[in-house]
Amino acid sequence: MILKLQKKKLDSLFKVDTSSWPDSLVKANLKLKGIYYQRIFKLDSSEYYLRKVIKFEKERLELSPFNLYNLAVTLKKKRSYKTAIDVLNDAQIIALRTDNLKALGIIQDELSSVYSRLQNYQMALDLKLRAINLIENSKPIDTISLIYAKHNLADLYFKTKEYQKSAELFIQASNEFKRINYMPTYHLANTNLANTYIKLEKFHEADSLIQMSIEWFKEFKNENYINYALETKALLLFKQNKLVASSRIYDSLVNNA
Q1: What Gene3D superfamilies does the record point to (predicted)?
Q2: 189 burial class (0-12, 13-18, 19+ CB within 10 angstroms)?
Q3: Three-state secondary structure of 15-28
Q4: How far apart are CA 47 and CA 65, in angstroms?
Q5: Is residue 184 within 8 Å of residue 151, measured between CB atoms?
Q6: Residues 6+ apart with CB under 8 A from 25
């Protein structure tokens, strides 16, 4: 909501001549629009504005690794994985040259995410562990980035079938998201934990978590998360040999797709 209000205020200045604006304001204008469009999945617009930020910085020989990172996030969401890796590698070079451990940790965390999308899980895991080490050793510690990195590490352990490690980290992440009141991500972590419990055949624990998450997602009308949670519920029912109930959920998901 805050981002949307900031974007609206910037749009009101759209016809104003920006030639007299200080560089910092021009960059903030372009960056905010790029991130706003990224959040609402207007990804072509996001890429347009984030590339304008980078072009603006290049002309002034002050390229920021964080703006390259922002562009890479948009490219990943567009499934332009090869280009995202190239951009993140450029960002790594700048972060290393400037000894910016905070930026390097966040960049390697995003690289891990891209390699995970490409199903290169070993590379993703190596990068994730390095990223977490960098984030933990940067001052001050970026607590939010660290929580997300450990949540995503749990997902990688799930994908590499290390389910006990995955469950332990999802529990930690869930507790941390609740502590900082990130409730959508808290319930997402619980849904991921439920999936892990299904693999561990802890069906009662999985059912309690998934039921709570489904109710919360429905109350706040988050369609993507609702569908993911319902799919997890259907899988749980299938594993419990409740085939009719499971099929009913799968059919509703297909019909509503």
Answers
A1: Tetratricopeptide repeat domain
A2: buried
A3: CCCCCCCCHHHHHH
A4: 16
A5: no
A6: 18
Q: From the first residue on, what is the mean pLDDT of each consecutive set of 10 residues in the chain (257 residues)? A: 62 57 80 90 93 92 91 96 97 93 93 96 95 90 91 96 97 96 94 97 96 90 88 95 93 81
Q: Do you know the residue count of the chain?
A: 257
Q: What angle do CA 210, 212, 218 make, to 5 degrees?
A: 95
Instruction: Report how far apart, in Å, the C-alpha atoms of 212 and of each of 38, 180, 191, 218 are.
Output: 29, 19, 9, 10
Q: Which residues of 112-130 are buried (b: 16+ CB within 10 A; e: fewer)?
A: bbbbbeeeebeebbebbeb
For residues 17 and 20, give the distance between their C-alpha atoms in angstroms, rounded to a whole number. Answer: 7
Q: Within the chain, where are the H helices? A: 2-12, 23-39, 43-59, 65-77, 81-97, 101-117, 121-137, 143-159, 163-179, 183-199, 203-219, 223-239, 243-256
pTM score, whole prediction: 0.82
Amino acid identity at 105: G
Per-residue tokens: 204 = 């009662």
How many CA atoms, within 13 angstroms, populate the side-chain half-sphere of residue 245?
A: 12
- Report which residue type is found at 62: E
pLDDT, tens digit (0-9, with 9 covering 90-100), for 227-255: 999 999 999 999 999 999 999 999 888 88
